[in-house]
C-alpha cells in the first residue's frame, strides 16, 4: 500500500516520479491512495465560499481546470489536446475526426465531466442548511477524483493492469466526535464485491473521501488521505504501507518552526499517534489505528529524496534514545487555536463528583477536551478545549454549576483564549526522571510562562498550555533543551581585525574537540565589520568566515539585525564577541545584555568610557541578563581582571595597583638605559618591529594605559573615569598637533628631557619605568616614574606586562601577575578564555 500526499502530486513531474517509485515495488500487488493535487482542496473550499457569498468563482474554477488538464496533456501528449476535445464537445465533429491518434475517451473526458459537474454544483449551491453542508462535503472531494484519474493514466491505465477505485463506492464511515469511524464489515463486503467486478492487478484509490451509512458522500477530514491509506491497507490486507510526502519522515518537530528538527529513524504506533494528535501535520491523527490493529508497518518517506531511509512506524519503535544526552523524548508538537476553561471555587475542595459534573457538561455540549489539569487542592480545575468551542463549554459549565455559583461555593468559569498546547512525546518517558525538568528548564530560559501542565498516566506525553504568542519560541526552546547540548551558543563576531582573525583561527582549531569532549557547541552564526555583515541560519565555519564576509557585500552592518539574528530562538544561548575598537558597538552592550545576550570583548570603550553607560551595563548584568567579560582589555591573555575579581570576591581589601600595562612602553623602558641609545632611536626601532601603533603617539600619550587603569579601578568598585586619571604624555606639547611625518622627523626632540630624567634616576640608583598607579586614596596616575632597582617592575623582559596588587592579604609582598601582555595570539586567547568561562557558567565541564 502506498499513499502519495498532495505535495507529491503537485505537477506532472511529481506524477512521473510517483510512477517511478511505484515501479520499484512492481513485484508486489500495489494499491495506491492518491490525495488531491497540492492546493486543490483549499481551492475547492475557496470556490464554495465564493459561490456561497455570491462572488465570481468562474475564473478560479477555470484555473483549476486548466491546471488539471495541463497535467493530462503532458501525461498523454498523443491524445487530443484539451482544445480539440473542447471543440468536439461543442459539436464540431470534424475536430474529432481530424485527431490523428485513436481517441481514448478516458482521461480528458472524465476530467471535463468532473469540472462540468463541479460547475453545475457551484451554480446551484443551496443557500444554507443541511443541503448546503452536503453539497460542500461532496465538492471538497473532487480533487481526489481528478488526481486518481491522472495517476491511473500516468501508470498506464487499465491496459497496464491499473484499476481505479472511487472510495465512495466501498468505504463506509460514520462521522463521530473523534473523527470518522469505519464500518469495517460493510466496507470489506463492498470491496469484495467491487474486486469481483474489477480484477486488474493493481489499484489506484481516491484518498480523503468515503460514504456514510446513507450512501451520501463524506470525507475523513482535512489531511484525511493518510487515514484512507491506513484503512485501505487493512481492507486490502496489505503487508506494508508507505506514506510518500515532502519531508524525510517524521521529524522531532515541525521543520517549518524548528529549523534544527531531526528525522526519527523509527517510532512506535503509540508515539506516532500522540505526535499526530498533538498537531504534527505529517500524519492525520487517526491514521495509525487500522494498521496498528493489524501490525502493518508504516514507512514515511520523501518523494524528493527516495534514497533517505524515512521513518519506520511499528509496534516497538526504536528504544535507542534520539535526544541529546540520551533523553527519551522523541518528538515535540504543537496544537494551535485552543482556550483554557477554568472552574474555581473554595467550596469545591473535597466535594466528590465535581470533575464528573464538569466533563459531563462539556460532553453534553459536544465540546472535546484536549488536556485536563487539576491541582490536588481541587480549588480549581481547568481544561483546554478548542477555541471555537470555548464559549459553548463555558456556558455549559456555568449551567451545570449554577447552584454552586449561586451559593458562592464556586467563583465562576473563566475562559482564556489564544492558547497553544506543546506536547513532548516518547515511549521511553515512562520511569525516566528529569524529562519534565529539562522541558521546564528550556521554557524558563526562553521566558515562556506555563499556564497548565498535564502528564498522561502512560507517561508518553507531557503537555503544557502556553500563550499562543509564545508558541514558536517555546517549541524552539524545548527542542533545544532536548536535542542540543545545553551549552550550545549562537555566536556573532564583530570586527575581525588582527585579534578577531586570530580568534577565528583558534576557534577553527579547538571548537570541534571542545564539542566532542565537553558538549560545548560554539556556533558562529554571524560575522560583521564596518563594511558589512554575513548572517547564517545554521553556522559559518570559522575557517571560512573571513572569505564569506568578504564575498558578501550585499548587507551593510546593522547592529540591531545582527543581534536579533544571533539571539536565535532555536538555540539556547547567544553571545556577541566584539573585537572591534568601535564606540558605537560598545554603546549597544546594555541593550544586548538586557536581552540576555552575553558579551565578550577586548574593546576598551565600554569599560573605560562614559560612566552612565558603564552603570547601565552593570544594571543589565545584575538584572539577570547576559554576562559581560572583558579580560583581554587589560594585559591581553594574562589573568589580571580574574585575579582582581577573586581577591575582592573572597573578601580581600584592595590597597592599590601598580602596573606596567603597555607592552610597547614596557619594551621602550626595558631597553632605555641599558645602552647609550637615545630614546628616539628606540621609538623608531619599536615602530619598525611593529610594537607600536602606526602613529607612536597613540602609545606615548599614555591614554591607552589610562583606559586600562580605569577598567581595573572600576572593577575594584571605584567610580573612576578617564578625566580623573592624571596622565603624563610623553609627547611634548609642540608635537601633539603635528602630522605623523613631521612628528617622526622631529622625534629627537624627545631625547634631551628624557635623558635628564634617566640621569637623575641613575644617580639615585633607580630605573625609569612607565607605570599606571591606583593609590589607596583613590588617586590614579599614569606616567614615567623612577623605581628602585629591586622593584618587581625593573625585572621584566621585552614587552612583558606586570600588575601588582597590594591588598590586606597581600600587604607585605604584593600579588604579581606578569607575562607577555600584547599581540594577537595572546589577546585572542584571552577573549577565547572568556567565551569558555561563559560556557562553563552554562554548565559545561571542561
Ligand atoms: P502531504 O501533502 O504529503 O500529506 P502534508 O503537508 O500534509 O503532506 O504533511 C507534511 C508536512 O508536515 C511537512 O512538509 C512538514 O512541514 C509538516 N510537519 C509538521 N510536523 C512535522 C513533523 N513532526 N515531522 C515531519 N513533518 C511535519
Ligand atoms: N486533500 C485533502 C486535504 O487537503 C486530504 C489530504 O490531502 O490528505 O485535506
Ligand atoms: Mg497530509
Automatic annotation (TrEMBL):
The keyword Secreted does not apply. Keywords: Amino-acid biosynthesis, ATP-binding, Kinase, Lysine biosynthesis, Metal-binding, Methionine biosynthesis, Multifunctional enzyme, NAD, NADP, Nucleotide-binding, Oxidoreductase, Sodium, Threonine biosynthesis, Transferase. Residues 639-836 form the Homoserine dehydrogenase catalytic domain. Residues 2-302 form the Aspartate/glutamate/uridylate kinase domain. Residues 495-631 form the Aspartate/homoserine dehydrogenase NAD-binding domain. It catalyses: L-homoserine + NAD(+) = L-aspartate 4-semialdehyde + NADH + H(+); L-homoserine + NADP(+) = L-aspartate 4-semialdehyde + NADPH + H(+); L-aspartate + ATP = 4-phospho-L-aspartate + ADP. InterPro entries: AceGlu_kinase-like_sf, ACT-like_dom_sf, ACT_Aspartokinase, AK-HD, Asp/Glu/Uridylate_kinase, Asp/hSer_DH_NAD-bd, Asp_kinase, AsparK_Bifunc_asparK/hSer_DH. Its cofactor is a metal cation. Pathway: Amino-acid biosynthesis; L-methionine biosynthesis via de novo pathway; L-homoserine from L-aspartate: step 3/3; Amino-acid biosynthesis; L-methionine biosynthesis via de novo pathway; L-homoserine from L-aspartate: step 1/3; Amino-acid biosynthesis; L-threonine biosynthesis; L-threonine from L-aspartate: step 3/5; Amino-acid biosynthesis; L-lysine biosynthesis via DAP pathway; (S)-tetrahydrodipicolinate from L-aspartate: step 1/4. Residues 343-401, 423-482 form the Aspartokinase ACT domain. Homotetramer. NCBIfam families: asp_kinases, PRK09436.1, PRK09466.1. Bifunctional aspartate kinase and homoserine dehydrogenase that catalyzes the first and the third steps toward the synthesis of lysine, methionine and threonine from aspartate. This is Bifunctional aspartokinase/homoserine dehydrogenase. The gene is thrA.
Amino acid at each position: 500500500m502506498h499513499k502519495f500526499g498532495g505535495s507529491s502530486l503537485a505537477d506532472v513531474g511529481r506524477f512521473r516520479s510517483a510512477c517511478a517509485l511505484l515501479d520499484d515495488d512492481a513485484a508486489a500487488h500495489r494499491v495506491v491512495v492518491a490525495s488531491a493535487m497540492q492546493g486543490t482542496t483549499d481551492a475547492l473550499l475557496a470556490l464554495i465560499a465564493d459561490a456561497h457569498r455570491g462572488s465570481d468563482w468562474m475564473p478560479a474554477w477555470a484555473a483549476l481546470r486548466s491546471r488539471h488538464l495541463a497535467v493530462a496533456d503532458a501525461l498523454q501528449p498523443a491524445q487530443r489536446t484539451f482544445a480539440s476535445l473542447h471543440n468536439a464537445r461543442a459539436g464540431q465533429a470534424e475536430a474529432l475526426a481530424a485527431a490523428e491518434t485513436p481517441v481514448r475517451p478516458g482521461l480528458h473526458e472524465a476530467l471535463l465531466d468532473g469540472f462540468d459537474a463541479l460547475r453545475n454544483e457551484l451554480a446551484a449551491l443551496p443557500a444554507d442548511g443541511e443541503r448546503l453542508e452536503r453539497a460542500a462535503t461532496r465538492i471538497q472531494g473532487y480533487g481526489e477524483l481528478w488526481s486518481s484519474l491522472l495517476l491511473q493514466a500516468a501508470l498506464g491505465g487499465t491496459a497496464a493492469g491499473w484499476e481505479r477505485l472511487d472510495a465512495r463506492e466501498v468505504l463506509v464511515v460514520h462521522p463521530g466526535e473523534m473523527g470518522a469511524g469505519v464500518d469495517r464489515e460493510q466496507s470489506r463486503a463492498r470491496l469484495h464485491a467491487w474486486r469481483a467486478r474489477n480484477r486488474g492487478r493493481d489499484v489506484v484509490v481516491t484518498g480523503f473521501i468515503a460514504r456514510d451509512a446513507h450512501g451520501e458522500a463524506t470525507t475523513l477530514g482535512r489531511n484525511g488521505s493518510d487515514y484512507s491509506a491506513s484503512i485501505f491497507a487493512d481492507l486490502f490486507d496489505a503487508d506494508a504501507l508507505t506514506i510518500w510526502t515532502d519531508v524525510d519522515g517524521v521529524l522531532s518537530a515541525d521543520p517549518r518552526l524548528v529549523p534544527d528538527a531531526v528525522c526519527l529513524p523509527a517510532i512506535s504506533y503509540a508515539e506516532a499517534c500522540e505526535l499526530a494528535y498533538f498537531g504534527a501535520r505529517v500524519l492525520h491523527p487517526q491514521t495509525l489505528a487500522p494498521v496498528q490493529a493489524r501490525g502493518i508497518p508504516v514507512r514515511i518517506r520523501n518523494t524528493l529524496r527516495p534514497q533517505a531511509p524515512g521513518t519506520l512506524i511499528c509496534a516497538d519503535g526504536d528504544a535507542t534514545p534520539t535526544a541529546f544526552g540520551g533523553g527519551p523524548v522523541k518528538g515535540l508538537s504543537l496544537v494551535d487555536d485552543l482556550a483554557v476553561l477554568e472552574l474555581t471555587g473554595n467550596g469545591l475542595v473535597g466535594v466528590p463528583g465535581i470533575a464528573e459534573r464538569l466533563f459531563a457538561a462539556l460532553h453534553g455540549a459536544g465540546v472535546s477536551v484536549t488536556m485536563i489539569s487539576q491541582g490536588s487542592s481541587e480549588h480549581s480545575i481547568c481544561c483546554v478545549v478548542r477555541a471555537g468551542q470555548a464559549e459553548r463549554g463555558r456556558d455549559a459549565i456555568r449551567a451545570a454549576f449554577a447552584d454552586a455559583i449561586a451559593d458562592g461555593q464556586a467563583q465562576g468559569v473563566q475562559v482564556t483564549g489564544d492558547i497553544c498546547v506543546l506536547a513532548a512525546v516518547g515511549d521511553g518517558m515512562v520511569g525516566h526522571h528529569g524529562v519534565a525538568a529539562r522541558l521546564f528548564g528550556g521554557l524558563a530560559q526562553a521566558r515562556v510562562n506555563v499556564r497548565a501542565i498535564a502528564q498522561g498516566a502512560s507517561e508518553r506525553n507531557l503537555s503544557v498550555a502556553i500563550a499562543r504568542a509564545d508558541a514558536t519560541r517555546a517549541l524552539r526552546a524545548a527542542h533545544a533543551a532536548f536535542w542540543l547540548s545545553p551549552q550550545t551558543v549562537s555566536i556573532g563576531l564583530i570586527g575581525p581585525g588582527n585579534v578577531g582573525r586570530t580568534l577565528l583561527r583558534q576557534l577553527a582549531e579547538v571548537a570541534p574537540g571542545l564539542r566532542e569532549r565537553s558538549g560545548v557547541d560554539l556556533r558562529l552564526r554571524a560575522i560583521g565589520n564596518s563594511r558589512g555583515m554575513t548572517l547564517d541560519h545554521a553556522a559559518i565555519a570559522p575557517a571560512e568566515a573571513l572569505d564569506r564576509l568578504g564575498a558578501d557585500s550585499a548587507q551593510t552592518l546593522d547592529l540591531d539585525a545582527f543581534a536579533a539574528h544571533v539571539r536565535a530562538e532555536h538555540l539556547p544561548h547567544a553571545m556577541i564577541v566584539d573585537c572591534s575598537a568601535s564606540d558605537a558597538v560598545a554603546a549597544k552592550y546594555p541593550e544586548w545584555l538586557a536581552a540576555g545576550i552575553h558579551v565578550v570583548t577586548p574593546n576598551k570603550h565600554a569599560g573605560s568610557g562614559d560612566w552612565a553607560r558603564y552603570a547601565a551595563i552593570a544594571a543589565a548584568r545584575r538584572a539577570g541578563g547576559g554576562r559581560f567579560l572583558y579580560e583581554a582589555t587589560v594585559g591581553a591573555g594574562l589573568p589580571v581582571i580574574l585575579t582582581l575579581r577573586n581577591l575582592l570576591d573572597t573578601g580581600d581589601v584592595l590597597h592599590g595597583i601598580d602596573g606596567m600595562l603597555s607592552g610597547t612602553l614596557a619594551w621602550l623602558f626595558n631597553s632605555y638605559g641599558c645602552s647609550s641609545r637615545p630614546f628616539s632611536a628606540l621609538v623608531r626601532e619599536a615602530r619598525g618591529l611593529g610594537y607600536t601603533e602606526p602613529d607612536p603617539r597613540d602609545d606615548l600619550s599614555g591614554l591607552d594605559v589610562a583606559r586600562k587603569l580605569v577598567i581595573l579601578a572600576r572593577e575594584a568598585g571605584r567610580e573612576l573615569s578617564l578625566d580623573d586619571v592624571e596622565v603624563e604624555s610623553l609627547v611634548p606639547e609642540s608635537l601633539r598637533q603635528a602630522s605623523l611625518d613631521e612628528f617622526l622627523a622631529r622625534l629627537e626632540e624627545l631625547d634631551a628631557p628624557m635623558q635628564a630624567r634617566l640621569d637623575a634616576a641613575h644617580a639615585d640608583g633607580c630605573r625609569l619605568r612607565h607605570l599606571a598607579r591606583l593609590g589607596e586614596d583613590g588617586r590614579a596616575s599614569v606616567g614615567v616614574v623612577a623605581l628602585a632597582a629591586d622593584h618587581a617592575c625593573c625585572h621584566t623582559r621585552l614587552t612583558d606586562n606586570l600588575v601588582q596588587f597590594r591588598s590586606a592579604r597581600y600587604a607585605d609582598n604584593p600579588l604579581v601577575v606578569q607575562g607577555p601582555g600584547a599581540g594577537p595570539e595572546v589577546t585572542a586567547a584571552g577573549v577565547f578564555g572568556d567565551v569558555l568561562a561563559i560556557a562553563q557558567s552554562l554548565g559545561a565541564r571542561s
